[in-house]
Amino acid sequence: xxxxxxxxxxxxxxxxxxxxxxxxxxxxxxxxxxxxxxxxxxxxxxxxxxxxxxxxxxxxxxxxxxxxxxxxxxxxxxxxxxxxxxxxxxxxxxxxxxxxxxxxxxxxxxxxxxxxxxxxxxxxxxxxxxxxxxxxxxxxxxxxxxxxxxxxxxxxxxxxxxxxxxxxxxxxxxxxxxxxxxxxxxxxxxxxxxxxxxxxxxxxxxxxxxxxxxxxxxxxxxxxxxxxxxxxxxxxxxxxxxxxxxxxxxxxxxxxxxxxxxxxxxxxxxxxxxxxxxxxxxxxxxxxxxxxxxxxxxxxxxxxxxxxxxxxxxxxxxxxxxxxxxxxxxxxxxx
Amino acid sequence: xxxxxxxxxxxxxxxxxxxxxxxxxxxxxxxxxxxxxxxxxxxxxxxxxxxxxxxxxxxxxxxxxxxxxxxxxxxxxxxxxxxxxxxxxxxxxxxxxxxxxxxxxxxxxxxxxxxxxxxxxxxxxxxxxxxxxxxxxxxxxxxxxxxxxxxxxxxxxxxxxxxxxxxxxxxxxxxxxxxxxxxxxxxxxxxxxxxxxxxxxxxxxxxxxxxxxxxxxxxxxxxxxxxxxxxxxxxxxxxxxxxxxxxxxxxxxxxxxxxxxxxxxxxxxxxxxxxxxxxxxxxxxxxxxxxxxxxxxxxxxxxxxxxxxxxxxxxxxxxxx
Lengths: 335, 321
What we know:
CATH class of chain B: Alpha Beta
CATH superfamily of the largest domain in chain A: Aldolase class I
Oligomer: heterodimer
Order of helices and strands of chain B: EHEHEHEHEHHEEEEEEHE
Radius of gyration of chain B: 19 Å
Number of domains of chain B: 1
Shape of chain A: globular
CATH architecture of the largest domain in chain A: Alpha-Beta Barrel
Number of helices of chain B: 7
Strand content of chain B: 15-25%
Number of helices of chain A: 13
Helix content of chain B: 10-25%
Distance between the termini of chain B: 28 Å
Strand order of the largest sheet of chain A: 1-2-4-5-6-7-8-10
Largest sheet of chain A: 8 strands, parallel, barrel
Largest interface: A-B, 82 and 81 residues
Strand content of chain A: 5-15%
Number of domains of chain A: 2
Structural class of chain B: alpha/beta
Shape of chain B: globular
Strand order of the largest sheet of chain B: 1-2-3-4-5-6-7-12
Order of helices and strands of chain A: EHEHEHEHEHEHEHEEHHHEHHH
CATH class of the largest domain in chain A: Alpha Beta
Structural class of chain A: alpha/beta
CATH superfamily of chain B: Aldolase class I
Number of strands of chain B: 12
Radius of gyration of chain A: 21 Å
């Protein structure tokens, strides 16, 4: 299995390569684009992007020297018509720059790129919401070489998708940055804190109502309150356990490391570490953890590899909760 | 099942169309019982029919032809767990046909298991029936396996920023909706899609609610902001260790409860009302958004309006739960 890591600057390449990354992905938001169309319109990130084609060229050169691949994310949910021609021109330039792949979140853009026959691999982003084999087959029809599966896909569903299209590569999330909703169907923004932050943080007052217009009974209120408390707890895990790390700097939060043997058995070819915008130290520790589990998985049984993964942070209670798991089927709490 | 009045051969795809002179009104329902109750009361309600759904008439006054409902859309766009049974579909179709209205089926994003269930439903529909598709894999399947049905691209496929908490249009860096690009237009044409369903985004202008090609339906008075597979209320009855897992089952608690969301700081008068039902957060259109919609109707950009008939933040008890 290949380990795919996020970078936000060319200098990240040697650091993360030494730690065990096989491939890198990045965003690109040239300053001239930002000035015309805004900061987040290319790849859904306000920060963490390469700022120029010169940076991209350096990134590709550094990666290729080390025998590694670079993918560039163009994973906005959609691109509006007034930006379309500029976007295609930029993608032509990215392909000509020697990038190994572009990651695309919009099937219309995927189709357009396939027609252009660019000298670059096409990867379908998790933002494209491939939840079934038919979507994977459509991606293949449109020239995709790899499909990055969304976060909320079970191992069983993955197995079925991967087996339907053995010629396609599949990539799955394994660490960091959960999503409460489906990212391909979330039409909101991660607003600045004073405006409410991400909508999924649910910084709201809320008031339940019954659909039949009747008043809520005491027993219903109690059950709803208990469910809300569980929801708040789950959100805390989804948002990286309050954005905390272990004493050694290992990140807490959404994790599928113990499922790596099952991901491999399902037919997943690459595992993805999320968090382009995160600090380099967090990404470095993430790569080290993932590489360690991949190596252990290669020489050990599923149970041993899973136990090793769950022991990395030295906090079994986090794994035991199940709330930190990308793939709950292998959670110790669900055994 | 027999044909509904509008059923005909597959549509022409996204050709440029003569702009409509009138707008047709559709009402969407997730629950068959609620749909049947609506149809039973529709005749007696006359032009007051929006009140059956708890909606005030004045906001529709600028719209033409609001006197008559002509279509029913049955099915939920947001959740695979709300797929109707074959019996429910039969009942909804039968009641709609008996009322002389056209019928359409709406389907959500689906897993492979959900697509298998959808296959059973699609096989029941007469040729020419419109199906609102919200999943690209289903779109591929439908056009290959059921070429006699007419696919409409649903609003989950129409991506655009719909951040109900945004302070201004400039903040959103708006650039129109995602059905407008040449790439997506060609993809929709490949599937023979002749109609697009869209939401009214916050800060919309009339000119945002149009397309170069194809016919446009607009949902009102609620847009959806976000949706997903993990459902807060759908875990109400699940044990702690199994709550909020991908692919969880539920007891369709979303049909029993909804909840209003309000900012923790005091909202001003222009703030949008936000509520959640099941796995989806919705916003209610402001007067300015309704005005934009009315402007697009007047300009001939929109020929169908889809009104939510489900329980929601505006409901009254007329139709019951």
